[in-house]
Structures
1.
Amino acid sequence: MKKILFIMIALAAVLSSCNDYETYGDKKEKERNAIAKFISDRSIVVISEDQFNQQGYTTNNELNQFVKLDKSGVYMQIERPGCGTMLQDGESTRLVCRFSEYDILQDTTTICNNDPSIVYGGISVVTLPDIISVSRSGGSFTASFESGLMLKAYATASVPSGWLVPLSYIKVGRPQSLSDECAKVRLIVPHSQGHASASSNVTPCYYEITFQRES
């Protein structure tokens, strides 16, 4: 009797363990649900690429529009299109980026260097921008972090693919007058377009990022 009871307890433990195990499909479903909830909670209006194109590659920010880009699955809002020029085909440059990263699954900000009230190492984080080296070839971009919080936090120079998506649509000049503004975008980045940690943990992230040339 005791032997049968032991077997039943062991079997129950195995079944419980199996129920607790999440497949990749389960995690992707959780990601989709989390993104959908995030969009609903923030009253985001999702538009198609066709509508985005018809609007002159802009989003109506008064309506809180985000375009869903089919190829990458990234959702993008262009708050400011930037000044100066876009990154040209065959060009390589260094960009200064300030950003906040928000873990959509955990509902929390994970990294930030765009808030002057936050201090890191005794100094404001806005004095610690991320510097990325980026090159354009046709419609493709390659980039790597040279310095900054993303490099420190994730110990990799690889720039998330999702970060490069806006570069096809924004100008990355450095403001030269009071009327100039650097480009600013908001992104919902699925794990497949995120950094290595997001990819391995199937974590979608929300970003607010500014871009401008270093010089």
2.
Amino acid sequence: MIILRNMAAVEYPDYRLLLIGEYARDLSATHRYDIHRGRENARASIDGSLPLGVDTADHQLYCIEPADADADLGQRPVAGYLWVGRKGDTAFIYDFYILPAWRRRGLGRSALAQLDRLLRGQGVTELGLRVAAGNPGAQVLYDACGFRVTGVNMAKPL
């Protein structure tokens, strides 16, 4: 079980740095350019999408905490993050990250189930995401949680 709570503004800078690093590696691997260019593109994309951090309209940032941790709410360790955007009755997961020390414990599946309940309660009828081709573990998780392939992104270097 997990607790999905709103990210506090004070937590955003650390999350942003983690996200930039992870996204830069994904961009570099996917588009076959160096990590420096990947980092520049990741930073520009994230800062453009979340100009006000946790206060950006139509976006919600969550911290994932293990519910069974021996700590009071808000004092539990952060096991991962979720970034969800909303547009009308649809939502999109921009980022879903479980920290390596917390993986393979069912927290990802639990977080997605809790997010489903939360979004349904808000009138959302469809939830989408993008998963990197080189992340088969995530693809298995998303498939098990009811996501289906709706298209395939493709690119080639010129």
3.
Amino acid sequence: MKYLKENISANSSTNEPRSRSTKKRSSSRVPILTSSLKTMALDWETDRAENLLSVISSEDSIDLVILCDCVYNDFLVKPLVQMVTDICYLGASTPKSTVVLIAQQLRSDSIFELFLDSLMQEFYVWRMPDEKISPNLRSTSGYVVHLAMLKLAATM
């Protein structure tokens, strides 16, 4: 979590307008989008997704869930997939297209295959092509990166 928070901090924009020149621009303004970015560690065996409602409002939803090196034991697969599914249903009254980013070191083919099979029951899953990710996360490095989206939300 420490490195994730540092990375987010280093790459976050300040939402301050940038001035490139002194020329007068058109009177139409581009709206500045703001975000509410929160990082949290979850224990998918003991925590409950509903606990996240203390940090998001009932009108909000979670846009991104990051799973980083979480799949390493077969008995943890079912609770992990259930937690991610529950998180995608939190907040807004209709499920939004929450994106799940999975970066995983490949330790056991059978365990990761079990995870993907379980995940694909509820989610559409795409493997990120090597040319779209950092060289140190490409398949030749022993890592894989996937994106997933809840099937129900994707059809809305």
